[in-house]
TrEMBL record:
Annotated region described as Disordered, given as residue ranges: 1-31
Composition bias type Basic and acidic residues, residue spans: 1-15
Protein name (record): YqzN/YkzM domain-containing protein
InterPro entries, per the entry: YqzN_YkzM
Organism taxonomic ancestry: Bacteria, Bacillati, Bacillota, Clostridia, Eubacteriales
Biased composition (Low complexity): 16-31
Residues forming coiled coils: none
YqzN/YkzM domain: residues covered: 65-115
Top-level division of the source organism's lineage: Bacteria
Organism: Clostridium kluyveri
Length: 117
């Protein structure tokens, strides 16, 4: 009797496995109609390679902000690491009322590299 119960349990397992495998199959579409796709990424890369690509380089001039000379002198320690006196000396003969940060830093570098007479 124990042998028949074991056989019954084994047949139940087989039927469960067969129902699972039948659920995964699609009955409405035949396998002949489908074309196998290995990976979606491969398909996308194939399409990208067939599409001609063009590169457009656009040079947009960078608009630099100009600051007043007074503001640059007040913040010279933070901008250049030098004291205000150095900034005043560098901009002593400066005719412009506004400068960019880069122009301000260059003026200070030139001032510090001058030879003293």
């Amino acid at each position: 009797m124990a042998d028949t119960e074991v056989k019954n349990n084994d047949t139940e397992k087989e039927t469960v496995n067969s129902t699972v495998s039948s659920d995964t199959k699609t009955s409405s579409i035949s396998s002949k109609d489908l074309t196998p796709v290995i990976s979606v990424n491969n398909v996308i890369e194939d399409r990208r390679s067939t599409i001609p690509s063009t590169t457009i380089n656009i040079n947009i001039p960078r608009q630099e902000i100009k600051y007043s000379v007074e503001e640059l002198i007040k913040n010279s320690k933070a901008l250049t690491g030098h004291k205000r006196e150095v900034a005043v000396g560098a901009l002593f003969d400066c005719q412009e009322k506004e400068l960019t940060k880069d122009d301000f830093k260059k003026a200070i570098e030139v001032f510090l590299k001058r030879k003293v007479k």
